[in-house]
Amino acid sequence: MNELALLLAATLASGTPLALAGLGLLIGEKAGVLNLGTEGTMLVAAVAGFAVALAGGGQGLAFAAGAAAGALMAALFALLVIGLNTNQYATGLALSLFGAGFSAFVGVSMVGQKLPEQAVFALPWLGELPLVGPVLFAQHPLVPLTLLLGLGLAWALDHSRAGLVLRALGESPEAAHALGYPVRALRAAAVILGGALCGLAGAYLSVVYAPLWVEGLVSGRGWIALALTPFATWRPTRVLLGAYLFGGVTMLQFALQGAGVEISSQLLAMLPYLATVIVLALISRNPLWIRTHMPASLGKPFHPGG
């Protein structure tokens, strides 16, 4: 039972950055904007958060720095694709490449440095409950908060005015514009909010999950987060499920190694990315299924009066 609890706790911890980034992307995509720059955004946020934590700023400031860095990267993306009408796909890829290079340049003096050992978080009494305690209540606070965020976003999209407006931006921006909503400004706000969540995910990786800085620390998690939204049919609760599924696959390699299974460590390290490729291949076999669930105007620019 103890080993199962540890595995489940590790799965939630590993899936949290994927869930945060996936939820951030979901917000932007529900508004009709596809941002392929997640990997670069998370890398810039990771190095920003780590630098603040290394300077003694504490986790709160480190997370704030990561979220701010993610929001700035997303604001740059929004300026280009919404303000200047550049191609969303090309701009996102360029942003990802820029983020990878910029983070490597800024973090060159911090490579290999580690943060001091951090205190273990646990809620009194609740953290001592069998199975549920270590899984949910003996984690970093960002882990249960991410769960609550996903559930709250699911409720908001279906039952709140803001959620309905967000969905309208991605389904029919022309109708939203006709009703008097500033579509381009609201799309930019959704992209920036999503970027802040991606930044929070990057900071979590370098400040809590690792906690250290090496070049390319995100290791493809931004691309996996991008795959989560079609996998989840653009539903927040399914984004959580997919994130923790990929987190579980990541932890599986360590569980197998601990059990003495003689499999190449390189092969085990491939498992999360192999799972991503398989999921995308299965999804792509049914284009109609994708078109049925994705926002109708995803990736399409909107020009008022055009």
From TrEMBL:
Domain of life, source organism? Bacteria
Membrane topology type: Multi-pass membrane protein
Compartments annotated for it: namely:
Cell membrane
Q: Give GO cellular component annotations, separated by semicolons.
A: plasma membrane
Molecular functions (GO terms): transmembrane transporter activity
Alphabetically ordered keywords of this record? Cell membrane, Membrane, Transmembrane, Transmembrane helix
Q: Which residues cross the membrane?
A: 31-54, 61-83, 89-112, 143-164, 185-206, 212-232, 239-257, 263-283
Pfam (any one): BPD_transp_2
The entry's protein name is ABC transporter permease
Please spell out the taxonomic lineage of the organism that makes this protein. Answer: Bacteria, Pseudomonadati, Pseudomonadota, Betaproteobacteria, Burkholderiales
